[in-house]
Amino acid sequence: MSAAAETIRPDAAPVVHDAVLRLAGPRALTLDSGQALAQLAIAYNTYGELNAAKSNAILICHALSLDQHAASVNPLTGKPGWWELMVGPGKPFDTSRFFVICANVVGGCMGTTGPRDVDPATGKSYGLTFPVITIRDMVRAQALLVDHLGIAELLCVAGGSMGGMQVLEWMASYPERVISAIPIATAAKHSAQNIAFHEVGRQAIMADPDWRGGDYLEHGVFPSKGLAVARMAAHITYLSEAALQRKFGRELQDRQQVSYAFDADFQVESYLRHQGRSFVERFDANSYLYITRAMDYFDLAADHGGQLARAFARLKARVCVASFTSDWLFPTTESKRIVHALNAAAANVSFVEFDTDKGHDAFLLDLPEMEGIFGGFVNAAAAHRGLKAT
Amino acid sequence: MTALRLDLGIIAGMVADGSRVLDVGCGDGALLKHLAESKGVDARGIELSQAGVNACVAHGLSVVQGDADRDLADYPDKAFDYVILGQTIQATRNPRQVLEQMARIGRRGIVSTPNFAHWRMRLQLLSGGRMPVTHALPHAWHDTPNIHMCSLRDFAELSRELGLTIERTVALRGAKARDVRPFSTAANILAEQAIFLLAAK
What is the pTM for the complete model shown? Predict the structure, then answer.
């Protein structure tokens, strides 16, 4: 170990730079729908230092319900960053070597422009007048941020779930800017089953009388019940049957026998209700509608003449595709489709499947094997790029 | 660096510097690592075992979890200068198809295979009447991954049938390696394993 590495405590949180990029202009962000945003705010965090050659930047893309606080305390919840296991000094995305960027997606509710913000044209909150956005729109906004930071090429673009969709979109839309990529627990298109689950969530929100056709902010109310139900339904899909069984089984919550009523008798009910309640404190209901829609619309092959391999035709990046055995929301078969297409495009691809019963959310959890593999992959990309190992 | 296994060293010697290589059944990636580090090869791998894949990727190698029988079909024609099947072909379900895929996606193929016609095999079968178990092939008949065994001559014959040109045949006997003719009767008795360098049409 080098002297520099020894001075870093392995548990030290990286120094965060928390900022907002504001862009304005008639087409500050052109959208796939044909519409445009005249004002665009992009809230982002960076960790570590950009080197003089600007060759050590890593972009982390977040999932549906997450945000830019990947490796630092979330100011809204007071909870640790969602990927502190992976991002920090001495971690796989080593902030003592790399400059790590994470930005809130367009349509989000943590500082990047979304339906909760004020429409400059009307002076009122967008609500449902916010244009429908796509994964490619999110990535286009990220590219503007990367431009703003003066970075031509990203050493790595990584993310899980919807973050993985963004990684794939980066590979397809900006192949010349991506040195390596890690799409995790994701798919090149949203399946019918996934769209179905999202529709249940959206209908739950819209069925809440406090949703008010999307204008709840104007009325000083919030569709908490609907959004909570949406979150509860979605949360089930993030876990495996085995994990639910192991965690809760049929155990009762604070009681010896069932109540013959509709209280949360079972621990699993109590757990889900808690998930719903805490979610509504940090997430905007309309953002949930827009972001789930963006995922539903994602179909990378369709954007390239129906052939996924063509999406990767110009790709030079090294790619590490990763999936989890018990993930039934984005199953291994979906990752294998991506791998097959990358092979057909003669791309430099690695594929790993992690054996875990923790379901889709496993990419956020402590899996030492994952850390070793992503760390090794990023180090190899860095070495290939001529970055010295510390 | 630890010394490369004898057969892997010979295979590495057949690979030109700076070429593109796919190692099918790359195990823990020892050959790939050697090729990448000492020959500047663009090295890729396919490996069936998850543990093997994970070890490879953690060491910065480009390896996918996959199956020679199924996954070679995904690669485009002539994507590689060399496709290597190191002690892999005898464990595939359909060796003929795997070799056809090898010839399609690679300009050259390098195949190493145990020789089932080695004299020790012949002797054990003849004298004991049991399936042979040797140092080179240590599995019992019921738990062996090697489901399609062949002799040197069998392999040479299939290569000819598939229209592959055998450019080199190296016979391995203990720690000794020597170039032989592919249909050599002596090598078919004395070699424990052989390595074939094949050119695809």
Answer: 0.92
